[in-house]
Design brief:
515 residues; globular; 37% helix; single chain; three-stranded antiparallel β-sheet
Length: 515
């Protein structure tokens, strides 16, 4: 179906979903101003001048958030934000894509192009998509091309809060992306949006002029400089053929399913769940704890109460100052009176370091655990000593389990968008022949690498058991080598030992134990 022809509410997603995405985006942005707007803007804006509204009802509940407490007029904001949300999203992405996945095609020509895709920028794209997916509950991958930029198409990422998907039995069948364009008009109420709808074999482009909450009326693509180049490529319906007739040039990857917050909302039943779902209150309490800690630091600065006799008068009505570098003062010639203070009184408040540190650590552990990770993944434990890969796997078991669960969603997403990319290459636009456009096999790399000592021990045990060839052992020790390097090293080892690949162990060599 083509793009909208009449004005409609925009974004078209459910208001509950929009509010949750906006909240998660504020936490992910690590911007205190946006956090205050999301929490204070929804409650205190109506409560100004009405203290009773803070005691109950919706406004009262919102006001209980730390970020919902307004800063008093004339005071400096002393709220400190800990960017734990960004750390969670980045960790999720690195667990999945610290090493690029292997794409295995159906023939040599396909494999060569898939290797070029990975080496040409797919890895950082997946790292970006992994972060956005963990933060907003899902991410989209799409095939794009621009002959002025590259002679080949590439894969781009789109955040979940910029897309209106259409699912059928849990499978993506179409999606409309939108971009808010720069407004060159002096009328700030006008909003230009570029809509890009992906269907099998087709992409539709449209330009709309509306408001912040309404799509508005359709405009010719040439009315805005950002969409003007597309005007010559689309047909009368505003669409263009991709050349991939049986492929959707967009793929959706949910973070995890089901999304507990809106699984009963029909239009959002197949959306993914953010890692922040349910831990917003914990992150809010963490910010409050750190802000209280910093307030203790500020209050703990030493203050000195100076007697009048140590002040230097600046003249009548001008006040007085104290020179802390002055060493000699002439006291008053009078008898001391009972109860007179010491010449100098130092005021020093206690800084509750242990209490704040323990509270913060407990909040962080609870937050990352509810998000599906082990606290040790975030460096919360350990004394800095070296540990083996086996020990890391045991310690980070929860994180690795979450990684495996998320990989189940990423595998078909990466495979389908790679197949669509191959189909566009093989289509009439680029006419690359000999490609197998079926979804390639996707293999995720192990994010925890064995150390040299562990690899050497494993190789020695396999050699003693006569359970692996020399070539296999070389590949085990050097997984990053290509076939030529492995063959050359294998020949050198066998040449030095005087054996061939098929030779059994010579007499006198240590072999497998025989009973």
């Amino acid at each position: 179906m083509p793009l909208p022809t009449t004005d409609t509410v925009w974004p078209p997603t459910d208001p509950t979903v929009q509010a949750a995405l906006a909240d998660w985006d504020a936490w992910y942005s690590a911007d205190p101003d946006r956090l205050e707007f999301r929490y204070a803007g929804r409650g205190h804006r109506e409560a100004v001048g009405h203290p009773t509204k803070h005691r109950g009802g919706v406004v009262g509940r919102l006001a209980r958030w730390f970020w919902g407490q307004p800063t008093a007029d004339g005071e400096k904001r002393d709220k400190l934000h800990v960017p734990l949300a960004g750390d969670i999203a980045r960790t999720s992405s690195e667990l999945l894509f610290s090493e690029p996945p292997s794409l295995i095609g159906g023939n040599d020509a396909t494999q060569q192009h898939l290797d070029n895709l990975v080496e040409g920028g797919l890895h950082p794209t997946l790292l970006e998509a992994g972060e956005v997916c963990a933060a907003l509950g899902g991410a989209y991958l799409r095939v794009v091309w621009d002959e002025d930029v590259s002679d080949r198409p590439w894969i781009d990422v789109v955040a979940a809060d910029r897309a209106a998907p259409e699912f059928r039995y849990g499978r993506l069948v179409a999606v409309t992306f939108w971009t808010v364009l720069d407004n060159e008009s002096t009328n700030d109420r006008r909003v230009f949006r570029h809509l890009e709808r992906h269907e099998k074999g087709r992409i539709y482009h449209g330009l709309y002029e509306g408001s912040l909450t309404a799509l508005g009326a359709a405009r010719p693509l040439q009315d805005h400089p950002d969409t003007a180049p597309l005007a010559a490529e689309v047909d009368a319906d505003g669409g263009l053929d991709t050349g991939a007739l049986d492929h959707l040039t967009a793929a959706y990857v949910p973070n995890v399913r089901p999304a507990r917050a809106w699984r009963h909302i029909p239009t959002a039943a197949y959306w993914g769940q953010s890692d922040y779902q349910g831990i917003e209150g914990i992150m809010d309490a963490l910010d409050e704890t750190y802000s209280s800690w910093m307030r203790d630091v500020q209050n703990g600065k030493g203050r000195i109460v100076v007697p009048q006799s140590m002040l230097d008068s600046l003249g009548p009505g001008q006040g007085a100052t104290w020179n802390e570098e002055r060493r000699i003062y002439s006291g008053l010639n009078m008898l001391p009176r009972a109860g007179d203070p010491n010449p100098l009184t130092v005021v020093q408040f206690e800084i509750r370091v242990a209490e704040h540190r323990d509270t913060s650590r407990e909040l962080v552990e609870q937050a990352v655990r509810q998000a599906g990770y082990s606290a040790s993944t975030f460096g919360e434990h350990g004394d800095g000593t070296a540990v083996t890969a086996t020990e890391i796997r045991a310690r980070d078991r929860r994180s690795l389990s979450t990684r495996g669960r998320k990989a189940l969603y990423w595998n078909p997403g990466v495979a389908n968008i790679s197949a669509a990319w191959l189909a566009v290459l093989a289509g009439f636009r680029f006419r690359v022949s000999g490609l197998d456009v079926t979804p390639p096999k996707v293999e995720f790399q192990d994010s925890i690498s064995e150390g040299p000592v562990e690899l050497a021990t494993t190789a020695e045990l396999l050699r003693r058991a006569d359970a692996a060839s020399t070539e296999t052992l070389v590949r085990l020790i050097h997984p990053d080598w290509d076939d030529d390097q492995v063959t050359a090293e294998t020949d050198r080892i066998l040449g030095e030992s005087g054996r061939t690949v098929a030779d059994p162990l010579k007499i006198g060599e240590e072999g497998p134990l025989t009973l």
